[in-house]
Amino acid sequence: MWVAGSGYADTRYEVGLVDGSVTLYPCICNYEVGKISKYNMERDDVVNIQSVHGCTSQTTPSESSNAGGVNTSSVEVMDLTFEESKPATKSATESKGTNSGMIREGQALITFPTTHEVFYNPVQQFNRDLTIAVVSVHSELQLASKGIKVSYKPRNEDIATAGKDISSTEGNSIPTATGDKTYHPGEYCQEGLCIVEGLSATGLRGVRYAKEIPGLKNIVANDWNHEAFKAIEHNIKQNEVEHLVTASHCDASLLMNQYRLSDRVDVVDLDPYGSPAKFLYNSMQAVKDGGILCVTCTDMAVLCGNRSEACFAKYGAMSLRAKYCQEMALRIVLHSIETHANLHHRYIEPLLSVSVDFYIRLFVRVHTSQSKVKQSAAKKALVYHCGGCDNFYLQRMGRLVPIGTDKKNFKYKNALGPPVGTNCENCGSRFLLGGPMWAEPIHDPDFVKKLLSHITAHSDRFHTSPRMKGILTLISEELLDCPLYHKFSQLFSHIRSPCPPIKKFRSALLNAGYQVSLSHITAEAIKTNAPHTVIWDIVKEWVKQNPVSRKRKLEDDSISSVILSKEARTEVSFDVRNDAIPGSQKQGITRFPANPAPNWGPKARAKPSSSSETLEEKRARLQDKRVKPKELRTDTEK
């Protein structure tokens, strides 16, 4: 790795013989002005193996050989950019190249293999920034109840120097707060939050937690991949956060299962490649009461209706190929998390649910209450989706009947239905059945408000703060009690009519006495509490005032003709109202930014590199995968 100026300059691999097999260990060189120092991460450096809740973790004391504890104070690295390594000099003993790259994100400096053995995607910096902000707000709320304050500014140099002197005499470098009970990032807090990151990859997120969030007690950065585990260990030492972050090499489900009886953690972070479904059961046992579960899903093809059968197998719900599929994906995953929570007499409180880029990210607070669990059926609903005009209707799975005037106690009854007939009353088409899905609010408005205030006050902490402000502002404007939405252009596409200005359509809904909002998912979303009949009456009135061109002549039996043949019953006014323009638009906030770079999307899954795999191992891995089954071979091949 070559970086302009001084600092981290070269990473090579040296060969070591361990247990009869050849293993590659990174050799890290640090070139500074006037001297060259070399640190070898060798097997002999590992002097202690400790157990982390049933999983193996390796630690290397900094006193023995630094073990990769490279001085990076003079490193100049652009955010989210890295170049291929370029050795300062070449000789017969040096490697011709390097298999690692380095990036700086937030306060973390991360080294990772460029051979795709360890997964890293710069696109998800927004995901990581948002998670840092959410956990920061959660930490503030939890510690405030204990009378503990936090500060996001680093402690002044005098106090930091005094802390180092004291810790060096004790032989244990653990930064702690002074007697004022105000904690800063990077300091150990005995009453602070415990975090488990089940699928850590490079350890980037765990290191950022340690260096950017005050009031933490412990972070476990876990990954089952051995190369990822080695990268986590190295990055922990490189960033000098050994006092807060522990590397773990374990199956994520097994790791979280160890917390089910005692020592539950405050935050569990699941950011898998693909679906998190197989981790939800054990993660729900690992979170303490009032703790937060953070979940990422990147299997959007499954959740958005391309493979409904796979969605049902993973999440227990049928997805639909509809224009609102991304919001439905959020609600399907919330339904799945709630189902796993109910198995342990627990229920969830969604704090924030976002669909962005190619993935969805959810933050839920977990509570324990048998009486609340009984209300779960009433929080979920099936979706009847019209295959013609895209109307949708919800069928709740259960009912709550209040007992008494205080409405604190309920009778739990079956839902009444169905909400529709065999055919759609608007266009006559048949319905498709989807769900069940979460039908309650997917955001906590109070938490979103606090989160937005936090990001505004500390915008310098986040590289993606403008985008976060835009999305959170849109979320704060969303109607909470209106699941799903219509796509504006699709409404008029059904009748082959040009679209009016969206502010006129929104004004018509407001003039009719209903509420309307956008969605953070798309600028074309029409989220409203108006019945479908009112929505289509507005569409018909616009077509009446602006007739469809003769070139777009409608067939007599088309869906368009069926819709327009019915008389409107709603008095419609397109007079533009001031409140039809969202506040976020008036403020000039960036709401739906374009992708900042080409190929802005998912990356390939981490996979073994040919440079670290012997020929025998490769043959074993590919055994019979390139051979046709006997029943498919021809007579000459047999």
Automatic annotation (TrEMBL):
Q: Basic and acidic residues composition bias: which ranges?
A: 615-638
| InterPro entries given in the database record | SAM-dependent_MTases_sf, Trm1, tRNA_met_Trm1_C
GO MF terms here are:
tRNA (guanine(26)-N2)-dimethyltransferase activity; tRNA binding
E.C. number(s) listed in UniProt = 2.1.1.216
GO terms under cellular component: nucleus
Q: Family membership, please give it.
A: Belongs to the class I-like SAM-binding methyltransferase superfamily. Trm1 family.
Q: Which Gene Ontology BP annotations are present?
A: tRNA N2-guanine methylation
Q: What class of enzyme is it?
A: transferase
Which transformation does this protein catalyse, written as a reaction? guanosine(26) in tRNA + 2 S-adenosyl-L-methionine = N(2)-dimethylguanosine(26) in tRNA + 2 S-adenosyl-L-homocysteine + 2 H(+)
Per UniProt, the keywords (alphabetical) are: Methyltransferase, RNA-binding, S-adenosyl-L-methionine, Transferase, tRNA processing, tRNA-binding
Q: Where is this region: Disordered?
A: 578-638
Identify the PANTHER family for this entry.
N 2 ,N 2 -DIMETHYLGUANOSINE TRNA METHYLTRANSFERASE, TRNA (GUANINE(26)-N(2))-DIMETHYLTRANSFERASE
Q: Does the keyword tRNA-binding apply?
A: yes
Give the protein name, as stated in the record.
Answer: tRNA (guanine(26)-N(2))-dimethyltransferase
